[in-house]
Design brief:
By secondary structure, this protein is α/β, with parallel strands linked by helices. Helices cover 34% and strands 25% of the residues. It has 13 helices and 20 strands. The structure holds zinc ion.
């Protein structure tokens, strides 16, 4: 067994049986987190000038949150490996252009480049030990029942990365699929490989489900896992109908391994690996942006880091009994919240992607195969629908009514709607989004 495999297994073991996993109640879990963060900070702060100054003289949990912009602005004095921003960026851009992801920085450090939708892209440094820890934790959470057993995993990635190359084992085989390859090539390779676990963004999984429905793809995975994009209920239903449900989710960002579904199909936050604090966007409906404090990552520490995602807490407990909080949905980026002028004439009303999604799904009915909704200016929303021609007129009228009711209820000025055909996922270098805002957020919102 090589050193990397030993580290993966250690992390797997810790995630399955360690003190974080043994916490049975919320109180036990929070006590564990508090100890873990304190220990982490004692080791880390002497080596991160940025965070040392940021946390000086105050309790860590009350320090001002930072975000991607702050992290990038202070990259050189924040990371503990002495890597400068331009050096890391040059390596990441070269890897992306040549699709050769093998080169690393000195010390085997990998550079991840996150795809920023609104301009700034973010850089993340990961050490070999952190890669192994990620892989071990992911295995513990994703393998059916968490058990190491003979599996063939098919893993679809937008940008291949050294991050995922750490896992090699006698028991588990991994095959990487580059999302930029054409669909027929994926289908042929999958038919030969016969994966037991299929992992990919939901737009790709939905395409594979329709290939299976057409009889071209003949695989029977035991578990299907959605990553990297918002899992829309429409796609979840189509994928589950084809491959057998439920569709599992891994909530993973370059900022960390944030959550995964349990055996009951409930998405839990990985609160045994990091602290997730809530920056409430709408406390009444349980919607928040997470503030992350990871108590393992050392190379580029993630402490009091606000992620620009909209999450909704699940109001009911999961039958699995885990003290880790459960999510109802990952809705998408804060950048995709719609803003309409308030009917009162003053200020703005924000509508979460999930509200838009529900209005369209309830209006369009069961024949809907795909959709996208894009806000292009304060008074205008474009909606593409994949529907049989005969069903279009009724669906459009019902969606108009559902969105008008939503606007009336929330006190927003009703937008003009423009309908077109479309809304089916396609293979693309960019993330597929069903609900997106293509205008800046109003300042006064
Ligand atoms: Zn659960």
């Amino acid at each position: 067994m090589n050193a990397a495999t030993a580290q993966v297994l250690a992390a797997y073991w810790r995630t399955r049986y360690g003190p974080g996993a043994r916490a049975r109640t919320r109180t036990e879990l929070e006590a564990y987190q508090a100890r873990a963060v304190e220990r982490h900070l004692r080791r880390l702060l002497p080596r991160s000038p940025f965070y040392r100054a940021h946390f000086a003289g105050r309790a860590w949990a009350a320090a001002p949150p930072i975000n991607k912009r702050v992290m990038l602005a202070h990259f050189d004095e924040l990371n503990t490996a002495g890597v400068c921003f331009s050096e890391a960026l040059a390596l990441a851009e070269r890897a992306e252009a040549t699709r050769d992801f093998a080169p690393t920085l000195p010390g085997g450090l990998t550079v991840g480049l996150s795809s920023g939708t609104s301009g700034t892209r973010s850089l993340f440094l990961v050490s070999p030990a952190e890669r192994a820890a990620w892989a071990g934790a992911a295995l513990a959470r994703v393998l059916p029942g968490g058990r190491l057993a003979a599996q063939r995993v098919a893993f679809f990635l937008r940008a291949n990365s050294n991050l995922y190359r750490s896992v090699r084992s006698r028991l588990i085989r991994f095959a990487y699929f580059d999302l930029l390859d054409p669909l027929p090539a994926h289908v042929a390779r999958l038919n030969a490989y016969q994966p037991t676990i299929l992992v990919g963004p939901p737009s790709l999984l939905a395409l594979l489900a329709s290939e299976a429905r057409a009889g071209r793809l003949t695989i029977g995975p035991r578990k299907v896992v959605s990553v990297a994009e918002v899992l829309d209920p429409l796609d979840a239903a189509a994928i589950a109908a084809q491959f057998g449900g439920p569709v599992h989710q891994v909530y993973q960002a370059t900022e960390g391994f944030l959550g995964a579904t349990c055996d009951h199909g409930t998405l839990h936050l990985n609160e045994d690996l990091l602290v997730v604090q809530t920056d409430w966007l709408d406390e009444r409906t349980g919607k928040f942006a997470p503030i992350l404090t990871d108590f393992h990552r050392q190379t580029q520490p993630i402490l009091r880091y606000r992620l620009d995602d909209v999450l909704t807490l699940k109001p009911t407990a999961c039958p699995c009994g885990s003290p880790r909080r459960a999510l109802e949905t990952i809705e998408g980026r804060c950048d995709d919240i719609f803003y309409f002028p308030a009917a009162s004439g003053r200020g703005w009303v924000c509508l979460f992607p999930d509200f838009i999604r529900r209005a369209i799904l309830s209006g369009a009915g069961p024949l809907l195969e795909g959709y996208t909704a894009t806000q292009t200016d304060p008074g205008h929303v474009e909606i593409a629908l994949a529907l049989p021609a005969a069903a279009r007129a009724d669906a459009e009228a019902a969606i108009r009514a559902a969105l008008a009711a939503l606007c009336a209820r929330t006190g927003a000025v009703k937008p003009r709607l423009a309908f077109s055909a479309g809304g089916l996922p396609e293979l693309s270098p960019r993330k597929f989004k069903r609900v997106a805002r293509h205008m800046p957020a109003p300042d006064s919102a």
